[in-house]
Amino acid sequence: MIENFSLRLTNWYNYNKRALPWRETNDSYAIWLSEVILQQTRVDQGMAYYQRFLSLWPTVVSLASASEQEVLLQWQGLGYYSRARNLLHTARLVVEQHQGHFPDSYEELIKLKGIGPYTAAAIASIAFNKPHAVVDGNVQRVLSRLFGVTEPIDSPQGKKAVESIALQAIQGVDPATHNQAMMEFGALQCVPKSPDCHHCVFKNQCFAFSKGKVADLPLKTKKTKVVTRFFNYFIAIWHQQSHTFTAIQQRLESDIWKGLFEFPLIETSQEVEFEELIQSDDFNQIFDKQTFTLVRRSEVHKHQLTHRRIMARFYHLHFEQPPVFLDEKNVFLIVDNDFSIYPLPRLIDRYLQQNV
Fold first, then answer.
1. What is the C-alpha separation between 153 and 141, in angstroms, rounded?
2. Residue 35 annotated in active site
3. DSSP string spanning 152-205?
4. Catalytic one among 3, 24, 35, 253?
5. 1 pLDDT above the threshold of 80
6. Is 0.85 topped by the overall pTM?
7. Do 221 and 152 contact (CB within 8 A), yes or no?
8. In percent, how much of the chain has pLDDT > 90?
9. pLDDT digits (tens, 9 = 90+) for 107-156
10. Which top CATH class is 227-355?
């Protein structure tokens, strides 16, 4: 089956592929940008981000001149913000060390921060026509089902088996078309749940279909452990000279949402009553025992991340006088609810849209 696999796959692709802008170019910058964005989201959502990034920063040189806050603001809503920071870091590295041009070899591409084996293979094959096979979740699923890889794909044996098949399949064919066909086939045809196997071009050769194991493959041994965290946000508001002021701060620790902005926060190990929060040393370290009125307490808002479940509650506090913050260097004042220049976690942004 491996001998004519790519031919049948690319025939399917040429007939079924979606018209996507990054398929109309061999610009390594645009291809890199699309791959990084699409690691985070579906094509329909990622399209707007891709077009916005290219509109603001049409070249890697222009992206390299952006600030981290500007890039995080445009990335807002995609999650995994370390990838946005890596995006900027790599753009600057390409300008400083490669004269504004992405290297054309897989070995040099993979040295760049935030570019792993999959992205390096995608850029090398699509932009530079090098025979490097892309292997992501879609490809692992397709090859495991078609060729009967029964070892867990998160084990060394399973990973090696899939990579071996992928490498064999790309030999002697157009690598750009083959890799894009592989990704598209996994996205449209060989989907994770309830694929339309009866209308698949490989149904007569597919191991999983013939053995009734489509729902079982690919196998995985590891399950993601989800940690629950409790965030208590304080929306500190006061009025001065006919304007409304709100305090926010930037997350600086090496944690989720680093570099993004949020309201003053106390994180607890479990849900805690407001009376207990305001008597804590953490609260006094934020507001230094100043007088306020609790205007509103929100319901708990659940926000699911890959490895974390955030349970957040928002407390609206009204101050008669501008509060004095002990950590003034990391406090930013929002005037009349204009948060537009500050990148926010999706949790905060959604809450503001619904409640402010």
1. 9
2. yes
3. -TTSHHHHHHHHHHHHHHHTTS-HHHHHHHHHHHHHHTS-SSS--GGG-TTTTT
4. 35
5. no
6. yes
7. yes
8. 86
9. 999 999 889 999 999 999 999 999 999 999 999 999 999 999 999 999 99
10. alpha beta
> Do the domains spanning 2-211 and 227-355 agree at the CATH topology level?
no
How far apart are the C-alpha atoms of 236 and 226, rounded to whole Å? 31
Q: Output 185-190 pairs: Cβ under 8 A, ≥24 positions apart.
A: 185/9, 185/12, 185/13, 185/138, 185/142, 186/136, 186/137, 186/138, 186/139, 186/141, 186/142, 187/43, 187/138, 188/16, 188/18, 189/12, 189/16, 190/138, 190/141, 190/142, 190/145, 190/146
Q: Which pLDDT belongs to residue 53?
A: 98
CA pseudo-torsion sign 11, 15, 189, 123: positive
pLDDT in tens, 223-270: 778 999 999 999 999 999 899 999 999 999 889 999 999 999 999 999
Give the chain's length. 356
Amino acid at 132: H
- Domain extents in the chain: 2-211, 227-355
Identify the band that residue 177 occupies on the pLDDT scale cut at 50, 70 and 90: very high
Closest residue by Cα to residue 170 from 158, 161, 179, 159:
179
Strand boundaries in the chain, DSSP class E? 227-240, 243-250, 261-262, 265-268, 293-297, 301-304, 308-318, 331-335
Tally of CB atoms within 10 A around 254: 7
CA-to-CA separations, 19 to 25, 38, 154, 184, in angstroms, rounded: 12, 15, 32, 11
β-partners of residue 294 are 317
Which option is the CATH number for 2-211: 3.40.50.850, 2.40.50.40, 1.10.340.30, 3.30.9.10? 1.10.340.30
Contact predicate 78/348, CB 8 Å: no
Peptide bond before 218: cis, by omega within 30 degrees of 0? Answer: yes
pLDDT 10s digits, 69-114: 999 999 999 988 999 999 999 999 999 999 999 999 999 999 998 8
